[in-house]
Design a protein that fits this description.
The protein is built from 6 helices and no strands. The chain is mostly helical.
């Protein structure tokens, strides 16, 4: 097999393929979101999603988003949040590819190289108990850091927001997919199989991540608005009390004047 891809380090190759597939999964998710948004309302696409609209990332991220948005418009992808897609590529490159390239090798050495149904089932069980939850947590930590929400504070909150639905969906999808992977794919191609099967899974993760962002952004807005509303109520109440006292004082003065006459 010719070309440069087979010659690069397996860890880097895994990272590049994971980053590419995760980017495609995010763009698939955004395409579905765009279609649903267009059908349900006439608001601009992604009006409540991503850094350029509701993300509370740093000012540096906002400037970067502006540059990416200009490039997106230029190449005909103006409806897509390419900053969000780039974050998914970064997670695939630095986390997903290296993580599974390393841990699947450990699993192979621990259980053995046989491809029987029994051995594959053991690998699936170990992977689902140890690798799946570990990666789900690290994914949120990575994404929280890349979004500027804080790797641990933002990441832990994302994990709390999404873990239940991710665990249910993952327990349905991945055991069957991994049985095929461990029984029929050679070890060198297993991360690639995970990436191929993960195209729709990553679209699901992208949707879960966007939903968590929207939830936390709304919560932050309410927390900021809350003291202002309380302060406004307090000011109105104080003004009403002052007006009532002034009217009462005027009434008493009028009664005293009547008596002296």
């Amino acid at each position: 097999m010719g070309g440069w891809l087979p010659k690069i380090h397996p860890m880097l190759k895994a990272g590049l393929t994971s980053g590419t597939i995760m980017s495609l999964g995010d763009m698939l998710c955004q395409t579905i979101e765009h279609r649903n948004s267009r059908e349900s309302q006439s608001s601009p696409p992604f009006a409540v999603r991503g850094v350029r609209h509701t993300d509370d990332a740093s000012s540096t991220s906002n400037r970067d988003s502006g540059i990416v948005s200009a490039v997106a418009e230029r190449v005909g992808l103006g409806n897509y949040d390419l900053t969000r897609t780039a974050r998914f590529f970064g997670v695939g490159l630095t986390l997903h590819g290296p993580f599974f390239n390393k841990t699947l090798g450990i699993l192979e050495r621990a259980v053995g190289p046989k491809t029987t149904a029994f051995v594959a089932a053991k690998k699936v069980a170990l992977g689902h108990v140890f690798l799946f939850p570990s990666y789900a947590f690290l994914f949120n930590v990575w994404m929280g850091g890349l979004e500027g929400r804080g790797a641990f504070t933002g990441g832990v909150q994302k994990f709390k927001d999404t873990w239940y639905e991710v665990a249910i969906a993952g327990s349905v999808f991945w055991p069957a997919a991994n049985m095929v992977n461990f029984m029929y794919c050679p070890p060198a191609h297993r991360v690639l199989f995970l990436n191929g099967g993960g195209l729709f899974w990553n679209a699901f993760l992208s949707w879960q991540n966007a939903k968590s962002n929207a939830k936390n952004t709304k919560g932050n807005e309410l927390r900021v608005l809350g003291p202002s509303v309380v302060g406004l109520d307090g000011a109105l109440g104080s003004n009403l009390d002052s007006a009532s006292s002034a009217l009462d004082c005027a009434s008493r003065q009028h009664q005293l004047q009547k008596k002296t006459r």
